Amino acid sequence: MLELKSIRENPEALVAALEKRGVAVAADAVSSLLALDAERRTHSTELQRLQEARNEAAKDIGKAMAAGDAALAERLKAETVAARETLRAMEEAQRGLDECLNERLSTLPNVPHDEVPAGKDEKDNVEVRVHGAKSVQGFPAKEHFELGEALRMMDFEGAAKVAGSRFTVLKGGLARLERALGQFMLDLHTQEHGYTEVQPPLLVRDEAMYGTGQLPKFAEDLFRTTDGRWLIPTAEVSLTNLVRETDIAAEALPLRMVALTPCFRSEAGAAGRDQRGMLRQHQFNKVELVSVTSPEAARAEHERMTECAEEVLKRLGLHFRTMLLCAGDMGFGARKTYDIEVWLPGQNAYREISSCSDCGDFQARRMDARWRGKDGKGFVHTLNGSGVAVGRALIAVMENYQNADGSVTVPDVLKPYMGGKERIVAA
Q: What confidence tens digit (pLDDT) does each residue in 119-155 have?
């Protein structure tokens, strides 16, 4: 949520920010918002005047009754009856204006950092750094689903019978490899990176989805239960909302949390994309990193979080590049985002495996999450990032560690989690 006071004081800055993000009617949107705000403020002033008049009338009635002037008291009471109806209608109108203004504000995306490049989509993202070299197989590399099906450990037909498209059943060595990846990531982030492991709810209320920015704009991308809860699209929702409606002591910051959870996404806008394999699923596992910081520490925390996610891929021996997203490619709630893209030789392409975002106080305003200390108080800043997507890490390991006979070599760092197993071979 953006600060209304800042928009009033400098509407041109918001117009420029929205245009940078690619909003075609930015000036009209801001102008309309300010007009609604002006109407609400005028209405609020009149409502306050009427409320004060009602209070004065109540005092006058009391004085008339104390003076024994029953006729005057009755006349004043009659006048207040009509005024009461007007006041009730004004209060209802005020609630409507407040809700409308809040709804308008809730659909505006975050303002990008100055260093975020302008651009429309992924073609305008900027490469920040590259780690390692592309793996060389010495034979035509297969995609993960070809390897998985040949190993008889990746079953898409069985998953479709049970749940429909965009689900996968993993078996045997690949099921254990995915579990090993998740446990390795949790151990790395908790034991070396200072994150606290959390097992959060997978079902959340409207308020939680609103707090992190999924609602109201992205409802179609989510799964909703019959009792009105939502399946989390990422553990960011549960973890970040743990600080909602709280005042956190400044000396307790930063808070760093990590969770390994299933995630659920409808992929409503993904028709025709990545239909083969498990790159784009309705259900997948992900290790999520969330940090809650002071405003001054947020930028450094963003760099640190990104490095923590990168370290996962370094330990796995995977080639990747880190990209600074342009304004048009950033998520709704982010003010700056790094995407980490891992190399997949089977696809002969880089694919996103982690996205680390600095959200500033955008989510904190929606959640009413604050910090307080001897030097002041204010809204906390929140950050989130994949540390990393477990299913995509499995894909990357399979494609980069594949052998000519279709087996998959287990990376050294995962062998302790695999009972010392060195290769995954056909069942």
A: 999 999 999 999 999 999 999 999 999 999 999 999 9
152 flagged as catalytic = no
The domain spans of the chain are 4-106, 122-424
Q: Which of 104, 135, 352, 370 is catalytic?
A: 352
Backbone torsions φ then ψ of 290, nearest 5 degrees = -135, 135
Q: Active-site residue 265, yes or no?
A: yes
Residue 186: pLDDT band with limits 50, 70, 90: very high
pLDDT higher than 80, residue 80: no
Catalytic residue among 335, 351, 392, 407: 392
At 270 the pLDDT is 61
> Are the beta carbons of 341 and 321 closer than 8 angstroms?
yes
Looking at the predicted structure, is the pLDDT value of residue 72 above 80? Answer: no
> Cα Rg for the chain, rounded, in angstroms?
27
Structure-block tokens of residue 166: 């965009």
352 is catalytic: yes
* 197 belongs to the catalytic site: no
CA distances from 232 to 133, 246, 332 (A): 35, 22, 17
pLDDT above 80 for 427:
no
Superfamily grouping for domain 4-106: Serine-tRNA synthetase, tRNA binding domain (1.10.287.40)
Check: CATH 3.30.930.10 for 122-424?
A: yes
CA distance 290 to 250: 17
Known catalytic residue at 280: yes
